[in-house]
Fold this sequence. Notes:
There is one protein chain. The protein is mainly beta and 162 residues long. It has a single domain (2-158), classed as Cupredoxins -  blue copper proteins (Immunoglobulin-like). Helix content is 15%, strand content 48%. It contains two helices and ten strands; from the N terminus they run H-E-E-E-H-E-E-E-E-E-E-E. The protein has helices at 2-21, 56-59, and strands at 31-39, 44-48, 51-54, 63-69, 75-93, 100-113, 117-123, 138-143, 151-152, 154-158. Strands 7-4-1-2-9 form a five-stranded mixed beta sheet, covered by helices on one side. Strands 3-10-8-5-6 form a five-stranded mixed beta sheet.
Amino acid sequence: xxxxxxxxxxxxxxxxFVTGLFAGETAQAGEFRWVASEMMPPRWAIWQPxxxxxxxxxxxxxxxxILENPTKEEHAFAVRGMFEMTAEKSTEAVAPGEExxxxxxxxxxxVTVPAGETRRITVSTAQFEGTRVSGPGQLFRVxxxxxxxxxLGGHIYFVGSR
Length: 162
């Protein structure tokens, strides 16, 4: 009986992986797509892919995360140490003698994606610019803060310029 249960878990993980490979639209350079998938045991979930490697080439032209949630439950996507960048048109000059323009805001990445929806977020690349990474690179943890123990997390590796 246990053997069939193990085979079921393995088949579930394989199905999640294949779904992530062929999900919806494809991502362009500088865009990374994550898809929330539910798996066994019931009510467990995972953001796929769970391991992503980035380098300087991925940062050219900006960095965008596409978060797709085809499940029936709301999920959140958080990355410790990375920041979402939003822009708004300013009606006032930011500094004396300057014209009004765009104002950029940074906040830690924590995005709630309702069931059946997709979100696109712009990620700040300022912390990576000019970074020369030696050794294994920088590691960022990905997880769902809504479900914590019922959600398998992942990692983003930034290897930078060598």
